[in-house]
Structure formats: structure tokens, C-alpha cells
């Protein structure tokens, strides 16, 4: 499965409401924007939105700052699904706090670009190509990274995909792709990470679940099943390895604004300005609470908090960061 379909914790939210939003040419209405898409041959993008693909964000969201923290000085951190989105943001933040970061994904060009960006900023990172669907590649990724950096202290298992359709419309292969990437991929990563952590005297594992594990919508049977399964996986693993000094927790993000969400919506050809206007309008209507999407950096910053030693009594938990999405009845 290509990383082109990975949405690394970028979640889907409620369908676009049917009622229109009035506006003017400078700020087109949602109906007018969708009409413009169709007129431009972008009906696929409009259909993707109508099906409930999440879009929306504040035009100027806050940027997480490390404040000079060095919580991961000389720690070895492994990340799956990190060639873009939340995973890439996490790789940069971990490195900025002193970690030696090894990360994987299938898109070599993107992985190498993230590695260069981290190294150019003075951090330490290594990109290793691996597909979480292939056990041998996961094993080699973990073992190669540990051999290079001399240990393993933190793992952020973040790779995931989504395919949206009614349950009976999934082929068995499609259902398996979603479950195997999201759930089995995390299992494989942990299977090969845990022995290194045991030998090193402990560690911390963070697994990306989804707000859909708590409250979901139609068309997401495979995704929701996998993401809810991850919560159970985390809880059981936390009990398995507490005596070994390994803490395991689930990160539960809400809708996150990434390029991959835009691709999943079929809106790559929409002009950026129009896309941003639509995102803001959609968020105001569909994201309760903060009325915007999270940025990848915001979710990544929370992953760092869960991975740090600041909360040493926390394990087997599912920590929600969704802007109020699941608080809405």
C-alpha cells in the first residue's frame, strides 16, 4: 500500500450539511464553490466532500513551540508513517528536542526530503523505506535503526489509511488493506520494537488511533474497526509490558489538515485560495468546539508529550485531542 493513501491520523468528520451558506464573490458560498468545482471538471472533489471527507482549518492556527525543551536528548525514536503529515511533523519535533530519529514510509522522495530538512536544521534523522504491510520490512526497519543508533527509547506508530464506503460495498481486499495497515501494522511494529526496549530497560510507545474509535459515521466500518481495535491493542500491551518498564498509550486525534486529506477528497486541482476559503467555511459548520482542523504539528506536539517522561504513571490510556469533536452529542 502506497503512502499516497496514508492519512496518518488525519480524521474524517461529519458530512457537509445540505443547507447553503450565502456569500459574495470574494468569499464564495459553499454551494457556489462546489458549483465552480463541477464547472471546472472537479465533480470528483465535490463528490468526495459530499461523502464526508474531512476538510477545514483555521487560516492562521497556532504553531506549537518547544520552548527550548530537550526532553529527548540522545534518545532514539522510531516513527512509522512519517513521510508527511503528523508523522513528518513528529519527526521534526522529536529531532528539535534532541532525539535521534529513524522513520519509515514508502515514498522515498518525501522521506529523503524530511530527513534533509531535519539535518539542515541541526537535528539527527534517518529515513528508511519500509511498508508496514510487509513483516520483513518492518523488522528490518526496526533492527537497522536500533543498530545505527544503539538502542530504542520511544516508538510512535502512526501509519494508517482509510477507504470509505458502505460496509457491503467493501471488497474483502479493501477491508483487509485498511485493517492490516492500521491495526496489523501497529502490531508488527510493536512486535519488533518491544524486545529492544526490554533489553534496554524500558521505553514508551505511542500509537495513533482516531476519534472515530469513540464516535464515528457511516462509511467507515473498516477504519473505525481498525482504530477501535488499536485501543484494545494498546490496553493489552500496556499490561503485558508494565513490569518491563514499557508504557503504551493511544493518541486519539480528531480531524487534521494534511495534504493527504486534500488528495483523498479529490481536490488537488482546486486553486489554493478557493480551497482555503472552503476549508474555513466547512470547519465552521462541521467542527464543534474549536471550529477548525488541527494542524499536523499540534497533534505531533501531543504525541511528544505522551512519549516524554513527564507522565510516568500513565499507561494503557486513550488520550483525546480533537478540538471538541467527540464532546458534541
Number of strands: 7
Helix/strand order, N-terminal first? HHEHEHEHEHEHEHHHE
Taking the alpha carbons of the first and last residues, their distance comes to 35 Å
Count of helical stretches? 10
Low-confidence stretches: 1-57
The largest sheet has its strands arranged as: 3-2-1-4-5-6-7
What's the Cα radius of gyration?
A: 19 Å
Helical fraction equals 40-55%
- Which class of secondary structure composition applies to the elements? alpha/beta
What average pLDDT do the residues reach?
83
Q: What proportion strand?
A: 5-15%
Can you tell me the overall shape?
globular
Main pleated sheet: 7 strands, parallel
3D architecture notes:
This protein has 329 residues and is α/β, with parallel strands linked by helices. The longest helix is centred in the middle third of the chain and has 29 residues, at 172-200. The two termini are 35 Å apart. The protein has helices at 30-39, 43-50, 85-96, 108-120, 135-149, 172-200, 221-241, 259-264, 272-286, 296-307, and strands spanning 76-80, 100-105, 124-129, 154-157, 203-208, 246-253, 318-321. The chain has a seven-stranded parallel beta sheet, sandwiched between helices. Mean pLDDT is 83; it is low at 1-57.
Amino acid at each position: 500500500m502506497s503512502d499516497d493513501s496514508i492519512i496518518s491520523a488525519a480524521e474524517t468528520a461529519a458530512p457537509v450539511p445540505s443547507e447553503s451558506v450565502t456569500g459574495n464573490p470574494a468569499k464564495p458560498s459553499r454551494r457556489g464553490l462546489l458549483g465552480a468545482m463541477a464547472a471546472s471538471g472537479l465533480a470528483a472533489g465535490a463528490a468526495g466532500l459530499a461523502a464526508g471527507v474531512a476538510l477545514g482549518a483555521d487560516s492562521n492556527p497556532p504553531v506549537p513551540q518547544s520552548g527550548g525543551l530537550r526532553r529527548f536528548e540522545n534518545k532514539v525514536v522510531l516513527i512509522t508513517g512519517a513521510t508527511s503529515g503528523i508523522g513528518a511533523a513528529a519527526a521534526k519535533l522529536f529531532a528539535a528536542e534532541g532525539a535521534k530519529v529513524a522513520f519509515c514510509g514508502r515514498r522515498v522522495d518525501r522521506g529523503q526530503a524530511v530527513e534533509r530538512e531535519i539535518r539542515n536544521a541541526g537535528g539527527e534523522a534517518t529515513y528508511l523505506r519500509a511498508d508496514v504491510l510487509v513483516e520483513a520490512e518492518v523488522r528490518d526497519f526496526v533492527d537497522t535503526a536500533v543498530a545505527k543508533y544503539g538502542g530504542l527509547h520511544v516508538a510512535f506508530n502512526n501509519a494508517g489509511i482509510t477507504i470509505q464506503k458502505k460496509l457491503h460495498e467493501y471488497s474483502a481486499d479493501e477491508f483487509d488493506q485498511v485493517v492490516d495497515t492500521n491495526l496489523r501494522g501497529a502490531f508488527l511494529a510493536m512486535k519488533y520494537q518491544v524486545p529492544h526496549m526490554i533489553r534496554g530497560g524500558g521505553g514508551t510507545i505511542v500509537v495513533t488511533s482516531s476519534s472515530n474509535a469513540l464516535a464515528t459515521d457511516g462509511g467507515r466500518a473498516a477504519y473505525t474497526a481498525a482504530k477501535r481495535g488499536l485501543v484494545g491493542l494498546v490496553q493489552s500491551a500496556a499490561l503485558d509490558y508494565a513490569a518491563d518498564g514499557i508504557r503504551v498509550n493511544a493518541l486519539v486525534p480528531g480531524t487534521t489538515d494534511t495534504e493527504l486529506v486534500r488528495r483523498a477528497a479529490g481536490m488537488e486541482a482546486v486553486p489554493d485560495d478557493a480551497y482555503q476559503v472552503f476549508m474555513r467555511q466547512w470547519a465552521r459548520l462541521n467542527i464543534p468546539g474549536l471550529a477548525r482542523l488541527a494542524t499536523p504539528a499540534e497533534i505531533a506536539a501531543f504525541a511528544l508529550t505522551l512519549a516524554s517522561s513527564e507522565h510516568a504513571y500513565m499507561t494503557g490510556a486513550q488520550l483525546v485531542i480533537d478540538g471538541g469533536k467527540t464532546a458534541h452529542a
